[in-house]
Design a protein that fits this description.
This protein is an alpha/beta fold and about 280 residues long. Helix content is about 35%, strand content about 20%. The chain contains ten helices and twelve strands. The structure holds 2'-monophosphoadenosine-5'-diphosphate.
C-alpha cells in the first residue's frame, strides 16, 4: 500500500474500537485495489464526539464508519441523513458528497446481501420471524420489509417494544405481526427464516438461547447476527434439527463492503475482505 500526499483518510469512530475488524478489512481492500486511501480506528468518548467530527471534517476525511455508542448521536452532526439511516434511526457510515456529509446505514443492506449470497433465497416468499426489537432488529426489519418480504413476525421479551417496532415497519409492509418470546411457537413452526437480533448467546453467555430449541425445524433457515461464537447455541440446535444456518460474519463483511463502495466508487473486493476478516 503506497501512501503519498494524495492519500485520503478514512476511518472508524467508536468507544471502544480496539476489537474492531474494520481496519483489517478496509486496508486489505484498499491495498488490493491500490485505492488512494488509508483507514484507521479512533477511540472517541461521547463527550468528544462533536470535536472529533469537526476534526475529521477539517482533515478532509472522505468518509468514516461510526460504531457504538455514537450511531444515534452522530446524526446531529450530519448535513443530511439518507432515507435508509432515517428509517433505521442510526448512522454507521458517513459519506462526503459535494462537500456535504451524508449519514447512511449499511448494516441492514449488508445483512441482506449476506443472506442472499450465502443462502440463495427468494425473499418475497419468506415467512420471517425476527427475535428482538432493538436497533439491530429495526435495521433488519426495515430492509426485509422494503425488499418485499410478505410475512414478518417480531417476537420480543418486552412486548410493547415489539409493537412499537411493528408500527414503525408498517410504513413499508402490511404483513407485520407481534408475539411475546414465550408465545411464538406457532410462528416459528411456520417460519421459513428465523433471525436472532438479540445478544442472547453471545460470548461469554454461550449457553443461552433466545427460544425453545424444539420449535426449530428443518424447513427453515436460522440466522444469528452474533459472530462470537461463530456458531451460537441457537445455531447448533438449528443444525441438529436439519435447518440451514447463517451467522453474523457475513453482515460484518458486507456492511463494510458497501461502505467501501460508497467512499471509493469501486466494487468492493469481497473475497479479499473476507480473507482479512477470517485471518484474525
Ligand atoms: P441492539 O442495538 O444490538 O439491537 P438493543 O437495542 O439494546 O441492542 O436491543 C436488544 C434486544 O435484545 C432487545 O430486543 C432485548 O429485549 P427487550 O426489549 O425485552 O429488552 C433483547 N434482549 C437482550 N437481552 C435479552 C435476554 N436476556 N432475553 C431476551 N431478550 C433479550
Amino acid at each position: 500500500m503506497k501512501i503519498t500526499a494524495q492519500t485520503r483518510p478514512l476511518g472508524l469512530i467508536g468507544h471502544p474500537v480496539s476489537h474492531s475488524k474494520s481496519p483489517l478489512m478496509m486496508n486489505a481492500a484498499i491495498k488490493k485495489q491500490q485505492a488512494p486511501f488509508v483507514y484507521l480506528a479512533y477511540d472517541i468518548v461521547p463527550q468528544q464526539l462533536k470535536q472529533a467530527v469537526q476534526g475529521l471534517r477539517t482533515l478532509q476525511f472522505q468518509g468514516f464508519n461510526v460504531t457504538i455508542p455514537h450511531k444515534v448521536a452522530i446524526m446531529d452532526y450530519m448535513d443530511e441523513i439518507d432515507e435508509t439511516a432515517e428509517a433505521i434511526g442510526a448512522v454507521n457510515t458517513v459519506v462526503k458528497r459535494n462537500g456535504k456529509w451524508i449519514g447512511t446505514n449499511t448494516d441492514g443492506l449488508g445483512y441482506l446481501r449476506s443472506l442472499q449470497e450465502e443462502m440463495n433465497l427468494n425473499l418475497t416468499e419468506q415467512r420471517v420471524v425476527i427475535i428482538g426489537a432493538g436497533g439491530a432488529a429495526r435495521a433488519i426489519g426495515y430492509v426485509l420489509a422494503k425488499a418485499g418480504v410478505a410475512h414478518i413476525t417480531i417476537i420480543n421479551r418486552t412486548i410493547y417494544k415489539a409493537e412499537h417496532l411493528a408500527t414503525h415497519l408498517s410504513q413499508w409492509s402490511n404483513g407485520i405481526e407481534v408475539r411475546s418470546l414465550a408465545d411464538a411457537k406457532v410462528q416459528i413452526k411456520k417460519a421459513t427464516c428465523v433471525i436472532n437480533t438479540t445478544s442472547v448467546g453471545m460470548h461469554p453467555h454461550v449457553e443461552e438461547m433466545p427460544i425453545d430449541a424444539d420449535w426449530l425445524h428443518e424447513d427453515c433457515i436460522v440466522s444469528d447476527l452474533i459472530y462470537t461464537p461463530s456458531r451460537t447455541k441457537l445455531l447448533h440446535a438449528a443444525k441438529d434439527k436439519g435447518a440451514r444456518i447463517h451467522n453474523g460474519m457475513g453482515m460484518l463483511l458486507y456492511q463494510a463492503a458497501i461502505a467501501y463502495e460508497h467512499w471509493t466508487g469501486n466494487k468492493a473486493p469481497v473475497a479479499t475482505m473476507r480473507a482479512a476478516l477470517l485471518e484474525t
